[in-house]
Amino acid sequence: MPLQEKKILICVSGGIAAYKINILVRQLIKQGAEIQILMTPAAQHFVSKLTLSTLSKRPVFSDFYSENDTWNNHVELALWADAILMAPCTANTLAKMMHGQCDNLVIATYLSAKCPVFIAPAMDLDMYQHPSTQQNLALAEDFGHIVIPAETGELASGLSGQGRMAEPETIIDIFCQYFESSKKKSLTGKKVLITAGPTYEAIDPVRFIGNHSSGKMGFALAKAAAERGAEVILVSGPTSELINHQNIRVCPVISAKDMYEEVFKHYDQADMVIASAAVADYAPKEIAVQKIKKNDDSLTIELVKNPDILKTMGAQKKKQFLIGFALETNDEEEHALQKLQKKNLDMIVLNSLRDEGAGFKKDTNKIKILTQSGAREFSLKHKQEVARDILDFAEEQLLK
Ligand code: CTP
């Protein structure tokens, strides 16, 4: 059975689609899963605790305390689960999850969880389309959650459109696929160190020299490596990207010097390093203590070279498989190969700013990977797929 002994915590919130949970619970149990149900206070208007506890063969909790004055430990509940399913997930519960508004047992448990979270939203079509809901769903994906989109059809309001909770069969298929693919964890036991985002080099207390890197590629790589079972250290410069995965530790830094120091705290233990950060090559020699005033017609800031983090890693390489990035505007391959050699890398990922859809702040990227012995070109893809291509290629090289 595909879900044998999988522990699934189902959090039911107050929507009419809660009636489908009875069927879902029965079918999940038939597939071998163990089910624990939590309900928000509003959910109890739509489905009975008695039905759900009978079907799940466990008491259903909805409050921090049970009737006999025992405390329902949200941390224990969260750590017990192999996966959490928020279904149906109302606009209200979704908003509370995304903003940490912890006023019931469901949200406290969700906030304590380290396991994968699946979200099956259900609401009326206009609520679903509202920018606030759409933003919260996008944020949920940024957190690394799996959103099971609402289906289109007749809604409780009598209107018709997108907002129906996905059918139990769809949810079960997604669980089966997830647990099946998580068995093939090719990077289990490996430590992957990733640098991401830009660095900011202070000029004075309010100004800095930075660049347009968004951190999207590095964060996509961290997610892809964590999904393959790696333990990931993500050293990131300032970015608006967010990530929440049990295998990923984010170490935020500001300047190239901070990044250098943080990276070398982890380098010795790393099996693979992916340097996707756009590190500033130079930093102001002096950081003014006070804000610089515009007294003169011109201003000269003396810059000094930053440490080359990747080059230093290359020079100290032992077991590490080193992957660098090269962003070029001309003579792309030649420059990338020079970097591969100069920094003692195992492979380099080349981006050309001449390629439409590649580069900073985009969700897509078009890459070419080069090694000492050859090159492979990839088509324009979403950065998450590009991340998988990079890891597939690296794993192929490691197997050689
Ligand atoms: N890199 C680094 N530390 C630096 C500069 C770059 O770790 N101080 C890494 C980047 O993360 C990237 C690779 O080195 O993986 C290539 O960076 P790039 O700045 O393009 O290379 P440079 O050698 O600095 O060459 P250029 O003259 O083109 O800037």
Structure description:
With 400 residues, the protein is an alpha/beta fold. It folds into two domains: 7-181, Rossmann fold (3-Layer(aba) Sandwich); 185-399, CoaB-like (Rossmann fold, 3-Layer(aba) Sandwich), CATH 3.40.50. It has helices at 19-30, 49-56, 74-80, 91-99, 105-112, 125-129, 131-142, 168-183, 216-227, 256-266, 309-315, 332-342, 383-399, and strands at residues 7-12, 34-39, 83-89, 117-121, 146-147, 151-154, 160-164, 191-196, 201-202, 208-209, 231-236, 248-252, 272-275, 282-284, 303-305, 321-328, 347-352, 364-365, 367-371, 374-377, 381-382. The strands form six sheets. It has an eight-stranded mixed β-sheet, with helices on both faces. A five-stranded parallel β-sheet has the order 2-1-3-4-5, with helices on both faces. A hairpin with a 5-residue loop joins strand 9 (201-202) and strand 10 (208-209). Helix 4 packs across helix 7 (131-142). The longest helix is centred in the C-terminal third of the chain and has 17 residues, at 383-399. It starts with 6 loop residues before the first strand and ends with a helix. The model has no long low-confidence stretch (mean pLDDT 93). The structure holds cytidine-5'-triphosphate.
